[in-house]
Design goal:
The chain is an alpha/beta fold. 33% of the residues lie in helices and 19% in strands. Strand 8 (181-182) and strand 9 (185-186) form a beta hairpin.
Length: 226
């Protein structure tokens, strides 16, 4: 997969050069390109935003630099997403669907957002990462990119993504590692006895309890877990 990120703040994307995402890039499992929208603005001031027509607070990112930035990376098979609090709320199922695309473009807004004509012309899908407003689309783009990349084949172990929160409508069970006793707190005995069937049943029961408590909405979505 190739991911193009269009932003006015390319230096914010340092986190994508760390950890599992870095390893995926190094192994050519994904290609990430960051484009500065300001590179497509006109001298002498390289202005990218202006006041909103109709009045109102703040500034709106202008069409021309964004059109040109998109056109510089867009291919026939590109799917474009605009990071936006108005968008469909992102989740693991949407992330899985996005893994099917060969090329995605993540467009980051800033200030009051972008001129609507960009969204209309390129038929862009809006994605929100939650019901709150951030200063820009850079953190949302990193959230979407990170979540999608870890689901790509061979980035992390298949079993890890098959057995984690949201892979079904259940949240993950509690995890423990060495030492078996820490400050008088012992790991549940059942996890130490090597009986994998019993461990699986214990973990499933825990997942059910944790989901019921923390996310009753998720729990109710799945009638199989009563
Ligand atoms: C201050 S916000 C603009 C908010 C916009 N005026 C509104 O009321 O919907 C600036 C930019 O941050 C990004 N953004 C803010 N919150 C977001 C969220 N929850 N999900 C995705 N992107 C978000 C968008 O790219 C947006 O254009």
């Amino acid at each position: 997969m190739r991911i193009d990120i269009l932003t006015l703040f390319p230096e914010m994307f340092a986190p994508l050069k760390e950890s599992i995402v870095k390893r995926a890039v190094d192994a050519n499992l994904v290609e990430i390109n960051i484009t500065n929208i300001r590179d497509f603005a006109l001298p002498p001031h390289y202005k990218c935003d202006d006041e909103p027509f109709g009045g109102g607070a703040g500034m709106v990112m202008m069409c021309d630099p964004i059109f040109k930035a998109i056109e510089s990376v867009k291919q026939d098979n590109s799917k474009i997403f605009y990071m936006s609090p108005r968008g469909t709320v992102f989740n693991q199922q949407i992330a899985k669907k996005i893994t099917q695309y060969q090329h995605i473009i993540l467009l980051c807004g800033h200030y009051e957002g972008i001129d609507q004509r960009v969204i209309d012309y390129f038929n862009i899908e809006e994605i929100s990462i939650g019901d709150y407003v951030l200063t820009g689309g850079e953190l949302p783009a990193m959230v979407v990119a990170d979540c999608v990349i870890r689901l790509l084949p061979n980035v992390i172990k298949k079993e890890s993504v098959e057995e984690e929160s949201f892979s079904t409508n259940l949240l993950e069970y509690n995890q423990y590692t060495r030492p078996a006793v820490y400050r008088d707190m012992a790991v549940p005995e059942i996890l130490l006895n090597g009986n994998h069937a019993k461990i699986a049943e214990y973990r499933k029961q825990q997942s059910i309890e944790i989901t019921k408590k923390n996310r009753p909405d998720l729990f109710l979505r799945n009638n199989n877990f009563k």
